[in-house]
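Retro notes, structure queue

What went well: the backlog is down to a handful. What didn't: a couple of records were mislabeled last round, so from now on we paste the full input next to the output in the thread. Example, using SDR family oxidoreductase from Aeoliella straminimaris:
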Amino acid sequence: MSNVLVTGHLGYIGAHLVEVLQAAGHTVTGCDLGLFSGCNWKPLTAPDKEILGDVANLTEQDLDGIDAICHLAAISNDPMGDLDPGITLQVNRDASVELARRAKAAGVERFLFSGSCSVYGAGDKLDLTETDPLRPLTAYAQSKIESEELIGRLAGDGFSPAYLRNATAYGDSPMLRIDLVVNNLLASALSYGEIRIKSDGSPWRPLIHCRDIARAFLAFVEAPVESIHNQAINIGGNSENYQVRNVGDLVQELIPKASIVYTGEVGEDPRNYRVSFDKLSQALPDFELEYDLRRGMEELHKSMVDHGFSAADFEGDQFVRLRTLRKQLDKLTRVA
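Corresponding output:
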């Protein structure tokens, strides 16, 4: 079993990853700045050791004895990245590369970087693979591309990075977010009786349950190093590509009284990508998703109903990272 460091362990995916790793017998150290402290709506699984602070301040001594790093800590989506593109690059790219350098110097064998399928941006074809052109449309996506490239230069004997290009996350988590397309549409239906689709509904998105992302990180921790060494791999399933309008239809099946409303807020959304996950199946043939979209949405819907999710929750700060981050931006600037 391994000693694993999870950065961003208090986040939407990190909350699952701590539990998943520990259940598999690994010892987990968590490092998180705590920008979203108090945003959880369920109890969090505690890591075996916790470092409350910025990953940029981790030293080689802090990393001594760590076998693998699951690096999730980041400004975590397009709108937040656009709030201050400079800070996005500092946090997502510069701090990640420096952490990788220190990890290599400390003898950490694996560095697993949480990337994103958003690097494909406006895809010029369907079923995009890892070798297709990258067309980043946001500072967030650009930061992920540059991180992959720069961390890759450190790869070599004894230091094996890999880049998990995650599909768009959704689903229930102790650190629930509703600023993600599936969760947002379900939350708006519960709050207002309206499934508010901001585009025309045509863009494609690959979707993956947040717990399945955590399970993918576990699989990468345990995989033969030669199968993933310095590889970018799309994380998701071929059957889990959906157009946004498909998601709206599924929400309406769960909440029949809710009407679908196209608000036109974003006009024609240029982010449009359907992704192939064949490489994941080849690299890790034993890995399979536990959730499809319907099952994940049913679970989240039940959880929201049980918690009495309301318009006050939809309009508040707790479950929308951008609103919380705006309040924390001064703190983030000081540590970046």
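Agreed that this is the format going forward. Reviewer comment attached to the example: The chain has a mean pLDDT of 93.
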